[in-house]
Structure to design on (252 residues):
């Protein structure tokens, strides 16, 4: 069976095309397939694609990354990269909220204790994040993905890689996933388990570096010797761009 809208081969039992999101029994976008259904189908399809890709490179970040990238054409690779970036963004926000909740809880307990002893007359306010601050956090969460993608593209141009920008986006999104899981784990573990967080940090950093190397050499088509130099260039350039953009956004 093939999708009548985009021609994609369809597996049995699918309700929506896993490429374009159009319902299987429809001939294309129409009143019978409202925009919300098509968007929902696209989101579900790309989420499944992202999950399938992660399963390939989570245990083999070098060979698995290029194997997962080969599952998609350029358009789908960009969409999956965006899913990776959204996962990072959500993890960052959830981790921040968990961490803030724990800090507020600890501060409240300390304040109540001091108040009972006469040190303070009232409990200090928790200081909830304002809507503006939440928006700034969301925008700041996009900065690492944007800066890493730009730095990867620059490094590919410097070292004469034969890849394209969709590969740069895919590599950057994948390289951020270890940091996303690290943020969540660190927030859940708290400061009492700092040694565990440091161990997870080493794993996350190692995986990110391996993913960047695989992306440069196997997706960006940079020579192996060039990819070894490209990774630190990407990290330094990305950190510098992130610092500039983050300061500008937060002070605006």
């Amino acid at each position: 069976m093939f999708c009548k809208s985009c021609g994609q081969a369809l597996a049995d039992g699918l309700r929506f095309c896993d490429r374009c999101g159009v319902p299987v029994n429809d001939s294309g976008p129409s009143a019978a397939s409202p925009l919300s259904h098509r968007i929902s189908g696209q989101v579900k399809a790309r989420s499944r694609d992202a999950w399938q890709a992660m399963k390939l490179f989570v245990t083999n970040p070098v060979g698995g990354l290029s194997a997962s990238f080969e599952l998609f054409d350029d358009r789908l690779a960009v969409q999956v990269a965006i899913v990776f970036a959204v996962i990072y963004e959500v993890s960052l926000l959830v981790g921040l909220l968990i961490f803030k909740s724990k800090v507020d809880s600890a501060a409240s307990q300390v304040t109540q204790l001091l108040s009972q002893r006469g040190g303070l007359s009232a409990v200090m306010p928790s200081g909830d994040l304002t809507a503006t601050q939440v928006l700034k956090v969301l925008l700041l969460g996009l900065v690492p993905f944007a800066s890493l993608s730009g730095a990867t593209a620059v490094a590919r141009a410097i070292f004469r890689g034969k890849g394209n920008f969709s590969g740069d986006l895919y590599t950057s999104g994948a390289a951020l996933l270890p940091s996303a899981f690290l943020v969540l784990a660190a927030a859940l573990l708290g400061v009492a388990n700092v040694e565990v967080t440091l161990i997870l940090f080493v794993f996350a950093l190692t995986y990110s570096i391996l993913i960047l190397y695989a992306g440069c050499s196997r997706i960006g088509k940079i020579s192996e010797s060039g990819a070894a130099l490209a990774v630190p260039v990407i990290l330094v350039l990305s950190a510098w761009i992130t610092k500039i953009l983050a300061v500008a956004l937060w002070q605006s």
Notes: Residues 26-32, 119-126 have pLDDT under 50 and may be disordered.
